[in-house]
Amino acid sequence: MGFFDKFKNKAQKAKGRQKEAAGRKSGDPYLEAEGTKDRLAGGAKQVGEQAKDAVKEARKSQR
């Protein structure tokens, strides 16, 4: 996984956490839900990138 992709996914997760906290604090369920969506999307992207890395490593080891 490239450094930029890792950074971008972690930033999205952090942004989601902040939105969730702001939504809870202000009592805005829509902002909280949007934050949850952002956090989960960032995590899913990170898992996808890790799967790509695993496939690349498996191909390298077969050579």
TrEMBL record:
Signal peptide: none annotated. It comes from the Bacteria. Residues 17-27, 50-63 have a biased composition (Basic and acidic residues). Residues 1-63 are annotated as: Disordered. InterPro entries: CsbD, YjbJ_sf. Residues 5-57 form the CsbD-like domain. It holds the Pfam family CsbD. Belongs to the UPF0337 (CsbD) family. This is CsbD family protein. The lineage of its organism: Bacteria, Bacillati, Actinomycetota, Actinomycetes, Streptosporangiales.
